[in-house]
Amino acid sequence: MNSSVSARLNADLLDDKYAQWCEDPHSVEPTWAAFFEGFELGAAQSRKKEESSSTAAVPAATPVSVSSTPDMDLAFYGRVVSLVYNFRTLGHTQAAINPLEDEPEWNPRLSLDQYGFTETDMDREASNPWFRNGETMKLRDMVAALQSTYSDKIGFEFMHIHNTAVRHWVRERIEKHALNKGFAAERKVKSLRWLLEAEVFENFIGKKFLGEKRFSIEGGEGTMVVLNAILESCPSNGVLEIEMGMAHRGRLNVLANFVRKSLTTILYEFTPNYVPDLVAGDGDVKYHLGYESVRELEDGTVRVSLAANPSHLEAVNAVVEGKARARQRILGDDGAKTDRTQVLPILLHGDAAFAGQGSVAEVLNLSQLPGYRTGGTIHLIINNQIGFTTSPADARSSSYATDVARMIDAPILHVNGEEPMELYWAAQFALEFRQKFGRDIVIDMYCYRRQGHNEADQAAFTQPIIAKKIAARQPFGQMYKKRLVDDGTLTQPQADQVEQTIWDTLEAGYQKMIELTEAGDRTVFSGSTAIAQPEYSHAPVPTGIDREKFQHIGKVLTSIPDGFHLNPTLAKRFIPRRIEALASGGPIDWAFAESLAMGSLLMEGNPVRLSGQDCRRGTFSQRHAVFYDYETRERHIPLEQVSADQAKFCVYNSFLSEFAVLGFDYGYSLGYPSMLTLWEAQFGDFSNGAQVIIDQFISSAESKWQTPSDLVMLLPHGYEGMGPEHSSARLERFLQLCAAQNLIVGNFTTPAQYFHALRRQKRRDFRKPLILMTPKSLLTRAEAVSQESDFLEGTCFQEVLPDIKIFSNPSDVSRVVFCSGKVFYDLVNHRQENNIEDAAIVRMEQLYPFHDEMVAAIISQYPNASQFVWCQEEPLNMGAWSYIFPRLEKVVGQKVRYAGRGQASSPAAGSKAQHYREQKALLAKAFEV
């Protein structure tokens, strides 16, 4: 076959492939897809240039023949295309990103032999339109350029990004950076100072407080270059605030040198006699504490806040995202103009935790969801290349610790942690990307731990080879200092002076701390951002509203816009039932009471946020906070129409997560104190998927860090014969967490109580999380309703409710049955059906804090009562029994009997028949002599 025929066949094949790609880009091999994508990009750029240079009308584009490019050796050109594509895709696998490796291993898939190139080919002219603007160069120069761009000190992962415009933007910035890797001396000197600040701080603490744990940043000092490079670029990029979260490694260094917490306070916290300067609570270890400050920069100020968090790695991430979104709302940073560019979340991770903790994937999944997105987060992974004592080979099944981030199309930059200028560029690139696209980005900084997990840990036990390498390695700050002296950026005296100035500052701070301590002066130890609040009080809070407001809100909730096609079921039953209740003064059910409470708060200036799985409709079809047009699915949200000057109402169906979403909403409650923030579990027992957030933040944060919250947790709870998984919200676990008035735990029986409790959250002068066992069957139970009068002025929440039965002679009452929640109605029915006249039923609506005075006042009405019973639906070892009986016995002065299910390892029976037998038995036991 002659060469002309061969060329024509190749051209025909190319055009066929191109036509196939135009019809379905996924139907051709990735190499061809990359080739055609670049061809179209080049053609589009060419057309754009032609159009801009001509004032004449431009005809419509005609179909292009790919093979029409003159003088093209298609086989050679195709191999060049494949080479460029694969360097972009795989170049990171052979990048020199590990400071502990002398030379990286070359990926055989990027070997020139793989593409059929010979030594003769290396001097051939090569080009393609989407690499360096189509510049023609020898193939050997192109290979060198590709290696310098994609296999140098940064390994780039971005070809997984589905959005073509985003992918091209990233590529252009990467290739532009490769052409200009020279950095100003000023930038180098600043980076040296940041590195030495970190290094000298650790050395100083190590010498002054020998043996004290500090979880040093040694080996990962490049962290400070990344953080400071981001910070100094914030004003020019429109960032006013940074919300940060990180684990304990390097936290003290970040607090001292980045957030700028008081140095005297940090040093004082290392002294053996340190006692937290808190108004109440237990405090926490110094490397869990948070802080916030305002950093003064040359071209503006930036508020920097580092969230307090426990040792549960990655748990704080969702909390930070929630705080960031709350701050965005307060600053008006959620509008069309700023679109969340003014408040920047930054999360620092360890490599083992980023790969190992499922909460990381959950929080990443929040990033683009309407109710939870924060305009993108910059993730910095301090890649120690080890997790405590576990090597990556034992810690993950993926190639990189960062692979989970690929699921949200986040660009990933693997950066050598001992290359400050590359870290500097990566930090500024990350901020620019985040500001432009509102998406997450990951900087994976490869480094090491010089001290092991902590200063007392001996890494050589399990990692002897790496430990020897590190021990023989000069500290990075000293290495970079020598580098700058050698290249003439600084003289040796200038470099030494930078270091000496830092040491002198630390020494002066230490001496000041000693002097103040000896003088007994604690006034300067102000390194806490604790929020003091008044003591808890049982005092009633007036939460009733006037009738005009009640009726107005009710009418808004039952008004449907003209032309809106409401679902027939809602149109026939839901809305008419509410309209009738408004007209007749009741009955008001649970969901209606909830909407009335929210509407009243909105009118009074308190924003409301409700989020959770399927919470717009409600798990039990009870809420319908959002109406959907039956024909168009257009939305109508009544609570957005309460008044012209109302506060903001937000209701979001969350994705299928408890950990991340509860953490997010908790963080939101911290950042926006005036907002009523509610999280609803689809079923109460689902909350155990967020147990770390409950244990480490919601129940204990006020005591540890003095950060109050009034988040409301709604946990559907009640024994309806639905089996073990959807009966119990694990009331006992919350009660076990209760101490020092840290929580409010309730199990209410009436809609009005729920109404008043929600309003009370925003009308007290202190803030406490409210944990509610919310009903299931009571949502529609005819007796579980309230009347209009129960909501009006003069009414309030009652922590204990007396019997609804009016006894003609209270002295005849010989038995008092205490209970909470749904079982109350079962007890009332049992008493009525069996004509029991000598037993009173008292409801403990608020279980914690326990209002013993109110209990005593109620039972004093029954002077001859000699038998006291606690009745619950839950098994003996669950529910409120273990918590409540010693408190009740203290009030009544005698033993309290138990009526309920026996001990069990499972919350409820799986059989409905068995459930009803057990329920009948426990009701009878409550009244038996």
UniProtKB/TrEMBL annotation:
GO terms for cellular component: cytosol; oxoglutarate dehydrogenase complex. Its EC number is 1.2.4.2. Residues 588-781 form the Transketolase-like pyrimidine-binding domain. Its cofactor is thiamine diphosphate. NCBIfam families: 2oxo_dh_E1, PRK09404.1, PRK12270.1. Belongs to the alpha-ketoglutarate dehydrogenase family. This is oxoglutarate dehydrogenase (succinyl-transferring).
